[in-house]
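Entry for the shared binder. Reason: the reviewer on the internal report wants the predicted structure included alongside the sequence.
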Amino acid sequence: MNSKDIYILGIESSCDDTAAAVIHNGTVLSNVVATQEIHQEYGGVVPELASRAHQQNIVPVVHQALHKANIDKKQLSAIAFTRGPGLMGSLLVGTSFAKSLAFGLDIPLIDVNHMQAHILAHFIKAEGQIAPNFPFLAMTISGGHTQIVKVTDYFEMEVIGQTLDDAVGEAFDKSAKILGLPYPGGPLIDKYAQQGNPKAFKFPKPKVGPLDFSFSGLKTSVLYFVEKEINQNPSFIQENMEDICASLQYTIVSYLMGKLKNAVKQTGITEVAIGGGVSANSGIRKALQQAQTNKGWKTHIPKFEYCTDNAAMIAMVGELKFKHQLYAKRNVTAQARMELGKS
């Protein structure tokens, strides 16, 4: 088959977003996401509700992706899907649908590691986006993951640093909850932070290994700080929301950048990419751009639509695997936990 004829349908259902995308030779033809807003009432993702919503959304989302791409399902070369990591109930919906569709169309099925997809999203052809050169360092930062990955090739990745407890996105969201902000709180902290003084309050940076992360202590310190201040002034949060958010974001971003600097120093690799939902944060994007200017790094920041969970990145990995004939077996199963490494 000629490369110009390759059409990959990507399906993503690892958490609470049902997504489908069609990619053609590295170019995204459609990228459809159905967001589940029901979880806002509960202050976090409810797995049972998420899987039920995926069942309702997956057929219309895939149909819309094919329609927007202006292709018939019979033109598809393969179907790529998120195998893991993620919520098991959510993954099962996407996995089962992808297997059934691939079997019905008699085309290859391609399983994708969700975290690998966040990294390889940088290879999507998009205006103003230049793909990294191998080897490069990738920092994947999201609600469920915080990792520094040495990327040697499309399918050879080594985790050289990771969180020992909570993920950075979780630290943002739980700190936001302490401040009385609705879920998801990370983007709201970012919004308030842009109007505040990042040096107004000081929060501790957890001390762990040079490339590892820890965020549980930071959340506790935010809680104790807020409780202490409210005892003295019940209106403290309302009166200082922008400065609290700015100080918290400054602490987290400088902590992340410190680890990244250690990784550059240890590996000698100065080409750096970020991925995952938290890579949409304005603070980390700005810090990475400054590192490019001040430290001579070559930095790669994804477009906003490829930061959060999306199917375009799944389809991108699908296309790369298709070209290498790295297909999944028909009896492939979803995995809530998946290691990142050699594929």
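Summary line for the report: DSSP finds nine helices and ten strands in the chain.
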